[in-house]
Amino acid sequence: MISTGRARTFWVKVLIITLLFPVAYLLMLSLATQWIFPSVLPASLTLDRWSTLLGASNLFGSLLLSLGIALSVATISTFAGFFSSKHLAYHPQRSLWIRLSYFPFVLSPVIYAAVLYFYFIKLDLAGSFVGVILGQLLIAYPYSVILFSGFWSERIQQIEKLTQTLGGSRWQIYRRVLLPMAQGLLLVCFFQTFLISWFEYGLTTIIGVGKVQTLTLKVFQYINEANFYNAALASSLLVLPPIILLFFNRKYLFRQRW
Amino acid sequence: MVTPLKAEHISKSYGSEQVLDDLHLQLYSGETLSILGRSGCGKTTLLKILAGLEPADQGKVLVNEIDIQSLSPQAREVVYLYQEALLFPHLNVFENIAFGLRLRNRSEEEIKEHTLTMIDRLGLNGMNEKMPHQLSGGQQQRVSFGRALITNPSVLLLDEPFGSLDADTRSNMQQFFKNIAKQFDITAIFVTHNVKEAMLMGNRIATLANGSLSVFDSIDAFINSSNNVVQEEIAFWESVQARRSN
Lengths: 258, 246
Prior knowledge:
The complex is a heterodimer of chains A (about 260) and B (about 250). Chain A has about 260 residues and is mainly α.
């Protein structure tokens, strides 16, 4: 019994180290002045690279831009997906609509963006903040619809009707019944669509035409330039918000529900 | 005396299938009318029309002698209860029962007083904080009744409310409903496909078949009527008895 417990603790530790190592490595690389093979550790560490973030560096601007895009995409797609998936779920052509929701994923987001690029130019949205949000919504919104389509069951419909006869208005039904019941799924959807937007590269490159420099694009730019230290810094910034979001929402995301 | 519920010339069809055909119905204050019928005969459709959850093709519904046909379900004072208790899974027993009062923006003091009284009358003392998944099927149904009764509805529509319970719990709940119906002076329609349950729960009985509703003035009138399910039931038990004798 004891040995089983110890073995479990050992493997949990191995798992934690395995998961944390890449993050720790990135942080170390972003702080290194010089780290040349075969040295196990960098020659010296410096905070200069991080301190320039708050100064003239455009990396901080990219961080804010990425946050603005990801939060907008996550908020809009979560709520739009929640409300519209209800209408799709109870529609006589339900399966057709749900199948259509998979379209952007079957086609691949990059090809999808390339196909729609013409319309973005015509609408003067290419290379703009709004254009990139709209482009990413074309992937995040169907994802949200697919995620919520399982929530709208016959049972939910019955609860909704029962609440109506108890005296609930449409707004009260949403506020007091449907939104609290979907709370866990709403959080999961928000988190997932935030991640979709946060790490999106191909579609953002096409629709943003290099003018909308998100953090993910910066990371790739530094890697292409073989600037590993700046790439590590940008990557550290890239992984921090999802980790923070996960940490503060862990009790809601992983809580066992009714 | 005001008639709590009256339905006149109700008709409903789905495509070419006529589910309800020029149906009339009247409910007296404080009575329970059992509606008996086979699965798919239109019992649920009738209840949904009365509750405003489904439109009728023609006819009108009056609650307390007021035409409510144009009113939304929330304004009708008619509560529809499904076979399952359908408690709100994110709310505890107290909040489930208090739900209707919160919808009506009653004061916190009033909500507490009314809800605790209801919990006491339902025999659910000490369960205020329990979540629905911690309750048995019978307890869930009690909470469901409490949640409906606290809104003081003019009519309660019960769509096979004990259908998903086991035989013992079902029997207890039937007795429980009889008691609270008397205690709260409930006017209700109780839909079932079980003859014994219909006779046990109703002050009067009606049968629904081929879109037509036949209402019997008393239980005796129902038993003595020819060509009904009671006669079939009696014939069945007589055949069993005869087989055992041989």
